[in-house]
Fold:
Amino acid sequence: MTTRHPAAPERGVRLIASDSNASAAGIVCTAVSPRLTEWVPELLTKLRPRSQRTVRRHATTENPFRASAAILSTTLPEWNTTTDTWGDDTAEAVSYTHAIATLALTYAEEDVESLSAYHRRRYTDLTDTVESVGTGRGPVNGDLGALAKGPVALHRELDDHPQTLTLFLDGETWTDLTDRRTGVRALAAIAVLADGFDVRVVASPALQRELTRRYPAWSEIHLGLTGDRDRSHRDHRRTPSQPAAADDTHSAWAALNGLASTPGKRRLLGNLDTEQERSYRDLEEDHAIDIETGTVSRYVLDLEDRGLVTVDRRGQHNTVSLSERGDTAVSQCLDANDELIHPNQRQLDARLTDTPHDATSTVSPRREGQPGTTPTGIDEWIAATGDPDGDADYVQWLTGPEESPETQSIHRRFTVPAHETGITLVDDQPAPFDDGRVTYLSHHAETALVVSQWGGPLVTLGRLAAALLSDKALSKILTPSRVGRDFTAIHDGVTDRDPGRTLRRGHQVGWFSEDETTYTAWRQRVETVRDTQLARLAALTDSDDTAARSELFEALHGLVASATHLYHAAGIDLTATIRLPDTDAVARNPTRLENLCEFLSKTVPKQSVYGIHSGYRMLFEERPAKLCRRLPYDVEPNTQLDLTMSWVLAGPTITALHDEITTTLEQELTTVREAIADGTEDAPTLAIPVRDATTYPAIRRVLEEAAMTHDVQWTPRERQRLVRRCLRSFGPSDTHGACPYDVVVSLQRALNESPNPTPAAVERAAATLPPERFRPDLTPTATKLYAALLRADTPIGRSELLDRADISASSYDRRLSDVRELDRVRPVQIDGHRRWTTTATLTSRTPPVTAWLPPNRGTTIPLVTHRDPLPPTGQQHPIETKRGRHHPQPTLRITTPNGATPHTTYPMNLRHECPQSHRTDKYPPDSRDTHANETMAATAYPTTAVATSHQQPQRSLTRTNQ
Structure:
């Protein structure tokens, strides 16, 4: 029989058999009971000589204070911060480090009995500090966090090899323990020690069974009693795409045992995730958790004991996140209201679905391309707001159906088309909200999004204020960790002035007096103001009291501006999307149109900023009292104001209101303060461009941003083909652009399938959109047929097309001719039967040149096609293009075919043989792919049509294209 050698020291917890050779290694503590005050001081006493040697080995000076300061810079880098206050754990850890350094450098070589009475008392006090840290009986009654930040951090950071600690558990005291919380705290202390030491737990077989029964999660994680090793591994995370195994689900359900009667712990668990660590102070301010301040640490400790959360105690503030088991527990065992639901019940609910047949005896698996597999439209899902008078919230998080893209993809759908400055117009077909009072909120990384439905100027302003300063926003976005307890974290903590004064006098944040410079006080004040103004809004929505409504307008403008400036100071990019489902009703009614334009002209300029200064106060404010309460500023030459929030208007034909919005804005921006207008005061300029997000340059910008974000290596040719294909896929027949929302969703879905999707793959992903959003130039039946072909992996015939497209045979016969004329559709013969498929690239089936041009409104005008960057000699008549640049009139350049002389003339077929459903008269088809020798100028629009000199002048619409 071979001799088993002791295991090498390794940080962590391991179970050692009582007859093992390693059972008495290192520092030994016997009769370890569940009451940590009975054995932790003894352990620290035995550890003190080792700690003193570690300090002497790393000290570069004999001065204890300087030596301890150097050690703290390694073990606790945030200890000397000037931007926040210490917690009890940090304060006690600092006291411990000062004490152990003084003992090591001042009293290590001294005989205590020979010291003076003063030094004997000091020696005793220092020793007591060292040996009571983290027990609750130290200098400031610190908890286990002090133990983690003090001796554990010291040896973790400074010891090359971990010290072995052997703990003999007292079976009798552990078995007879009646208060389980006492045992939980002792086991948590062992886990904390394992971060810096090799902790070996010695327990009898009977005690092992008792620990497994009473503390199953801790025993499995740290002792490996159900695993294949004698210790646990950390930092194993499951990606969202990896489903939880059955064993993982059952162990997660077991870890939730006893939480049915503690909803606060379930709410705490449900508001954590694996990707983002949250500090205790953020959890204390989270309204969705709603537990007392002193309860958070106790609840976290219990959840950590169950293996559901991971606690990081190394920083200045403890942070907590879901463990792998906790992630499984939340996704499989908690419902949307954080109520317990058995995983078997969840699986059963998923299986209890209606059969896809009228007769329940006929059951077949759902196949690719059937109607049931088409993802629920994101826009339709968002429109289903629920009833706020019932159980729905007025402010809701922006999420989608289970089969839709993840929440971050939905967030990007709305934020990518928006420009950082100005107003963006998106032609879309948004479904009206079931209840227009609902506003959506979303937050990812450093961006936040508000989605609201237009309800008139006053109501919309109130909805924005309600969302930006909602309990959800204050609990998850404007948190104490982001802005600081005293707002010291604004502008990344780099300000030349007091943070409170910067916000009050610079950003002009309202309701922020010197008494509200702490986060808690400010939040209480702003919540009161918010609720008061929303109550006034409810009372004045239908009121004719002009004076009262005017006062409310002023208050809500100040509230929204204060909120956006605070978001800006916290480093969060804001986007507000205003949906107008019935744009035509606004455009046809002069009063409604004036209200919309005036709302934008009065609201958007107030969201301007110059560094730390309010742009509106710099340019427009005329009240002397307000002007006196500003910080001094210097204006750099040729600088402009920024906006604290980007604006997006989405609705059918909203781009048609471009000129009206621009005109109203221009009028408002010219009414600056007299001192600015006459040059007495210097101020930067404010430009608020109004951009059309549906144009060729705008779609190209969306593609470029996707390529940059996902590191996609598209060639310039592929990018051009992608833009054209997007314009063809999402462009209504009566417009010259495409909805950028559909472009973003299609790109996201294509990127989920491949890191470098081809144009054909993007169109295939676009085919998964609802039929009304893909190829709106086709009839609905033709769109379904084409989408079914794109999603098919192999050629398919008539019967399978009927099944996949979910259409009738008569509809198929009527619309097949429309589909087979499309550039990518081709028939093939398989076993003597005709099948239909799509090619990866477009064919040479090219419409005539006139089909590439915009509609001429029924007027026959001679046109010249611009396909060559250089004009022929003698043509010098300049024209003004949409981009405002002057180019000479171009002519058509045709490549000479092989075998012909340069002087050979070929006729051009001007007949349009494609059916009306395949008209592409708003963009050029991708026919250039088959003509490698053809050249084209690199302009914003691939083909530009201009009238000859005898054309009647038309009204020019000047707009800023993306």
Summary: The CA atoms of residues 341 and 536 lie 41 Å apart. The first strand starts at residue 12 and ends at 16. Residues 546-569 form the longest helix (24 residues). The mean pLDDT is 78.
